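Quality-control log, excerpt.
Job 1 of 2 completed; input and output follow.
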Amino acid sequence: MVKKLHDQGRKVIGYISVGSCEDWRPDAAHFPPELLGKDYEGWPGEKWLDIRRIDLLRPVMLARLDLCKSKGFDAVEPDNIEIHDNDTGFPITSADQFAYARWLAEEAHARSLAIGLKNAADMVAEALPFFDFAITEDCFVQGWCDQVLPFIAAGKAVFAAEYTDTGVDFQAACAWGRVHSISFILKNRILTAFRATCL
């Protein structure tokens, strides 16, 4: 599939969760038990990770980045990087979050992979030099898309996903996106094949 997309001239981004352990992933057993925190509410089988312990996370996360590289992905989407203000079971600070994010960016770049900052609007200013693009979820319906505009000002793309379960005015999001050079799509929260784009 990656080759097929490349043949169409597309860039391909690989998804990895960097802030949670999902028990259905083939490497789930590789996370040391002491890294596993509280359940990620609303997502059965998923637990928060203690991202302060880069020493213990390192083998799993580097293996995931290596897998993305070996499969030919151009970039990675690190999900659940925004973690310090969630009820994880660990006393994670915004400084811990940034240190982890910067480490991930450096490791992605060492593999010639681009990396996006996903959500984490309060980290945009300090993370901007290290991240190549941004991904947002629900920023329009929640009213915080303007916080990622520094990426646009820096010549870096912003990809914005809105979801059907929020009642978002998607056409209004598209209109805002056209003015601010942000690309919006509309998806189902459970990520079925459905996708609506701006006309």
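Job 2 of 2 completed; input and output follow.
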Amino acid sequence: MMKLLISACLMGQPVRYDGRANDDKTDNFRHQLQRWQEAGILIPVCPEVAGGLPTPRPAAEIDQGDGEAVLQGKARIISRDTEDFTREFIDGAQQALACAQRHGVIAALLAARSPSCGSDGIYNGEFNATLREGMGVTAALLSKHGIPCFSPEKFPDLLQWLRQQNKTFAQQFID
């Protein structure tokens, strides 16, 4: 059976940096996620927690780059008071990839704008709520290994992609 990696915060787990969940971002398709969860399709993960960061934790952004630059050692992930969390974010991304590979994950639904999970834009590293192009560390690593990443805003694109991958899966598990 096909498996999907999903940010744990999108499943209601309070693992965001501020100790909250992000399940409000999935309100429009919660029934679909519940169906997939009941079928054992979803593999929840929080790369930041997997990398050893506590909850809550200081907000962090990628300084001078994106997730790919972090993986190449050309950028860092820092908090507002310049505490460096780069190692934890990389460790968490590697653990998320290992989990995805262990479960045969074919795609990921990841929290938007996160320095870990952002797949279609991240914050600019200046803590001013300004977005820029790029992916977070986990999204970049998963993508590099052939696992496409989608944000909640791109859920219709994920559904379309799944329909193209496996018509039987689509008939059985997509409303």
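Post-run check on job 2. Residues 14 and 166 are 32 Å apart (CA to CA).
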